Amino acid sequence: MTINLCSKLTAIVLAGGKSSRMGHDKALIPIQGVPLLQRVCGIAQSCADTVYVVTPWPERYQDLLLAGCQFIREVPLSGESLAHGPLVGFTQGLAKVKTDWVLLLACDLPRLRVEVLQDWASKLDSVEDNAIAALACHPKGWEPLCGFYRRRCLPELLEFINQGERSFQQWLRQYSVEVLPLAEPEMLFNCNTPEDLALS
Known about the structure:
Shape: globular
Helix content: 25-40%
Number of strands: 9
Largest sheet: 7 strands, mixed
Strand order of the largest sheet: 5-4-1-6-8-7-9
Structural class: alpha/beta
Order of helices and strands: EEEHEHEHEHEEHHEH
Distance between the termini: 26 Å
Radius of gyration: 16 Å
């Protein structure tokens, strides 16, 4: 059964990494014959009506995307290179969001499961008002690139970035975050190296 969550949720897919450890663009790697970025966007579309892809290279991916996905060109901050990390890319995407909640996904999650995301999304109405996000947790901290954020966190996020900070974990430690249940942690496995790819 498909849960219709479209009216209250936007998705942002980040595709701005340099893939230096992989040696070639992770977003274009085929998983079961489908490029990874296209696969993640398809899953995002099953949860949200609007899907934004934040990337410095929209021309590279424009032939991949499913109808309905929109590009946001990631741009360097003043005096910086594009290697500013996912927090900045997320902020640039979040500025376009109109819904109260946004689903944030990295493009390198080959084991992503749509039914888990839909189940999480169905619980957003019960998240405490003071929580800025709903995320899965692992021993190293939060899993920031597969979870939900309230749009209203944008001013605090901009202030954090303007202070020169770039760490998702440091930013999240300042606020209340709802813990999402994760029965199968392997869903969050991400592809960074050829060895990772062999396991996906």
